[in-house]
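Structure tokens please, single chain.
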Amino acid sequence: MIRSVAAALLVVFTAVPLRADPNDARRDSKLDPFVQEALKWLPVDVETVVVSQGSLEFDAAFKHSEPKAVFQSLPMGLVTEIRKGMLRDPLQGQKVACAVEGSRRFRSPSGLGLGPYDGCEILRFAEGADDAAKIAFQFCRDRADAKDEIGGRQVAVFREKWEADDWTLLVAQPRPQILLCATDRRFLEEVLARMDGKGAGRALPEDLSEWEHVNVKAPVWGVRHYRKETAADDPTSPLRSAAAANHPDSEAIGFVFWYDPKSANPITARYLTKADTSTRVFADFLGLSKADQKPEITVVARGVVELTAKAGAKDGWATLLLVLLAYLGHAVNI
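Here you go.
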């Protein structure tokens, strides 16, 4: 029997009235300068952004399974899976200073695996690794299924079969130290155009309430602002009727999370809604109530509920990660 990890979202974050704590605001003016720039490159209708910042060795996430490496590699998943990880050897030991993933139009997978979506990963290699992006792109160009050109830039195209779904991955190296990997040609076309200064605005504008609730100084963090126009085909969106990976909430606003391994409870997530109702709050979170990593649930403001949890070496955190990813739109059927 196929069980969707995302179906665990039927046990949903909920909210009850409470006055907001003014000391808890985290405005996005504190964003890393490169992240601010990447948000301008991404299309304005992006729904989810995930960021990993700080020095990360490119191969760390593949040789280790500890939470820190796995969380830090989240916005690098496409790059690391091209042709079953062919970039791991040429980029082994190279430092990634920051990785930003922007995505939208989440859909259901045909069977098992990750649900398709339109998105792009933006990797910025560290100072001193100027040739890393160039090496990676040339490696892709030499092994691509097809070659394309978008906005005057060369693009390497890969066709992948992941479980029952056909994926297209497009790789470009538009600037020194920058490597892009997208799942959709039109999405990549827009990113490249916006990098050239064509297009106003940015993804996830700074006046969104989600920015008041996410710690953008954490090594890894993510923000999702639910969009009604694509909700009908999205199994994870609360803005639609009941589906395998959602809990309907017509007044849902967004979701944020961050991961800080130096914290006593490294995993934190918040769900935002205008709804003023209270239902069960992770009463039985996929058995985590019996594990060492039992989450703690706290109402922190009107319409805002926070989850905090440990991320030890034992079981529990990996399941929690999958559920957090589903809240961000990236549901996985297993």
